[in-house]
C-alpha cells in the first residue's frame, strides 16, 4: 500500500479535512486527518491494518507477544492490527496524567509492538515505550497508519509507518497569514 493509497482511503471516508486545526500537540495545521471517520468503516480499517501488520511482519524479527495501543487513538488500529498478526491486543491508558497498563498483565521480556493511529510529535508512543519498558517488556518497534513527520520524529524505537505524509504544522504564535485568517477548531480527542 502506497502513501497515496492510504490518503485515498482517508479521502473516501471524508477524513481528509482542510481548514485551521489545533492538533493534540498544540501545533496548528491546515490539514487534519480525522481517523475516527476511517475507523467507523470496518472494511477501510481492515485494509489499512492488514497492510500495517504485513509491514510489521516484514520489518521485525520473531514473534510478537502483544500489540499495545495507547488509548484513545491507538485502540482500534492496535486491535485490528493484532488480529492480522495473530497476537493479543492490550492498551495503556492515562492515570494521573501518565500511561499505565491497568487492565492487563505482561511478563518481563514480553515482545511488544506499539500501534498508534497518526504520529505527529511521537509523544504518545514515547510515553507508551517508557511504560512498557518499566514493566520489563521488550519494545520491538512502534507502528502507525500515518507518520505526519515523514520520518523525522524519534520515538525511541524503530517506527514502522504505513504512510508518511508531512503536513505543515506551526506554533500558534507563528501562523502564516492565510491560516491565521481562519478560525481554529480542535477536532482531536485530547484536551490541550
UniProtKB/TrEMBL annotation:
Belongs to the purine/pyrimidine phosphoribosyltransferase family. PyrE subfamily. This is Orotate phosphoribosyltransferase. It comes from the Bacteria. Pathway: Pyrimidine metabolism; UMP biosynthesis via de novo pathway; UMP from orotate: step 1/2. Pfam families: Pribosyltran. The lineage of its organism: Bacteria, Pseudomonadati, Pseudomonadota, Alphaproteobacteria, Hyphomicrobiales. Orotate binds at residues 120, 148. Keywords: Glycosyltransferase, Magnesium, Pyrimidine biosynthesis, Transferase. SUPFAM superfamilies: PRTase-like. InterPro entries: OPRT (IPR023031), Orotate_PRibTrfase_bac (IPR006273), PRTase-like (IPR029057), PRTase_dom (IPR000836). Residues 46-154 form the Phosphoribosyltransferase domain. Catalyzes the transfer of a ribosyl phosphate group from 5-phosphoribose 1-diphosphate to orotate, leading to the formation of orotidine monophosphate (OMP). Its EC number is 2.4.2.10. Homodimer. One of its GO terms (molecular function) is orotate phosphoribosyltransferase activity. 5-phospho-alpha-D-ribose 1-diphosphate binds at residues 116-124.
Amino acid at each position: 500500500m502506497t502513501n497515496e493509497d492510504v490518503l485515498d482511503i482517508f479521502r473516501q471516508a471524508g477524513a481528509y479535512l482542510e481548514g485551521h486545526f489545533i492538533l493534540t500537540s498544540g501545533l496548528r495545521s491546515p490539514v487534519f486527518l480525522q481517523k475516527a471517520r476511517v475507523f467507523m468503516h470496518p472494511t477501510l480499517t481492515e485494509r489499512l491494518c492488514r497492510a500495517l501488520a504485513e509491514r510489521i511482519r516484514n520489518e521485525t524479527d520473531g514473534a510478537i507477544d502483544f500489540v499495545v495501543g495507547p488509548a484513545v487513538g491507538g485502540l482500534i488500529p492496535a486491535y485490528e492490527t493484532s488480529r492480522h498478526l495473530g497476537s493479543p491486543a492490550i492498551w495503556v491508558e492515562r492515570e494521573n496524567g501518565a500511561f499505565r497498563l491497568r487492565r492487563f498483565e505482561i511478563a518481563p521480556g514480553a515482545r511488544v509492538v506499539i500501534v498508534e493511529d497518526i504520529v505527529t510529535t511521537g509523544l504518545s508512543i514515547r510515553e507508551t515505550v517508557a511504560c512498557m519498558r518499566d514493566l520489563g517488556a521488550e519494545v520491538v518497534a512502534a507502528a502507525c497508519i500515518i507518520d505526519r513527520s515523514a520520518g523525522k520524529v524519534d520515538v525511541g524505537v524503530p517506527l514502522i509507518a504505513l504512510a508518511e505524509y508531512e503536513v505543515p504544522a506551526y506554533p500558534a504564535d507563528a501562523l502564516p497569514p492565510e491560516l491565521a485568517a481562519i478560525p481554529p477548531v480542535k477536532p482531536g480527542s485530547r484536551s490541550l
